[in-house]
Amino acid sequence: MFEHVKHVTEKQKERFDGSHKMIDLVPGTTVMILVTEKQNKLDPKYKGFYTVVRKTAANTYVLKNEKGFLEPRNYPPSLLKKVSDKVLEQKNDFFEVEAIIGHIKDDKNNFLYRCKWLDYDESHDTWEPEDHFTDPKFIKEYWQRISEAPEGIKDINKANKKLLKDMKVAYSTPKENSSTKRKNYAKTAYQKKKRSKV
């Protein structure tokens, strides 16, 4: 019995290790955190940047944010993504968003957001795709502030429709299905026939 339990446990560990990449991050490494509670497709997959402070005995990581403050919880390596050197070289090109103040769709039907940058006037506003945001809160706050359906709402996926529904936005246009059309046609034909007999 003991041998069987040991064998099953080893197999489970092999399966777990095969599907979970265990990375070892040294203090000072820049990482991004996987967003586990995405409310809609507009939310970026990762948020960040964060710096590794240390590894705990439980194999989780203590992180600090860009302002130098510790994150309120520790993160397992499965939720962290190491930032490449190329991205780090471009890190100086990052600016802090004050607010999103508008949106349009590009030729591929993706949303672009007009950004008001912190400490810059409106002449520096730019149009940015969703994957340029390191924090999803600005996009969420924007949709909550405007409380209206954007143009092309019919093209938005179900997750976005749910988000807009939560904000009490009317977006749906009910359509007749074929059975309703048949019933209406049959009713009309019957009424015409009845009238002709009278």
Give a short overview.
With 198 residues, the protein is an alpha+beta fold. The protein has five helices and seven strands; from the N terminus they run H-E-E-E-E-H-E-E-E-H-H-H.
Describe the protein.
It is found in: Nucleus. It is a single chain. Among the domains are: 2-86, Roll (SH3 type barrels), CATH 2.30.30.140; 96-148, OB fold (Dihydrolipoamide Acetyltransferase, E2P), CATH 2.40.50.40. The protein is elongated. The protein contains 5 helices and 7 strands. The longest helix is centred in the C-terminal third of the chain and has 20 residues, at 178-197. It has helices spanning 2-19, 85-89, 137-146, 158-166, 178-197; strands at residues 30-34, 46-55, 61-64, 80-82, 97-105, 111-117, 126-129. By secondary structure, it is α+β, with helices and mostly antiparallel strands.
Alpha-beta classification: alpha+beta
Q: Can you tell me the overall shape?
A: elongated
- Strand count: 7
Strand order in the largest sheet: 3-2-1-4
Q: What is the CATH third-level topology name of the domain at 2-86? A: SH3 type barrels
Helix content: 25-40%
Q: Quick one: CATH class of the domain at 2-86?
A: Mainly Beta
Overall residue-averaged pLDDT value = 73
- Major pleated sheet: 4 strands, antiparallel
Supply the CATH architecture of the domain at 2-86: Roll
- Uncertain stretches: 152-164, 166-193
Secondary-structure element order, N to C = HEEEEHEEEHHH
Radius of gyration: 26 Å
- Helical run tally: 5
The termini sit apart by 88 Å
**Beta-strand percentage?**
15-25%
Question: Topology, please?
Answer:
Blueprint: H1 2-19, E1 30-34, E2 46-55, E3 61-64, E4 80-82, H2 85-89, E5 97-105, E6 111-117, E7 126-129, H3 137-146, H4 158-166, H5 178-197
Antiparallel strand pairs: 1-2, 1-4, 2-3, 5-6, 6-7
Organism: Phycomyces blakesleeanus (strain ATCC 8743b / DSM 1359 / FGSC 10004 / NBRC 33097 / NRRL 1555)
Subcellular location: Nucleus
Domain Chromo: 95-154
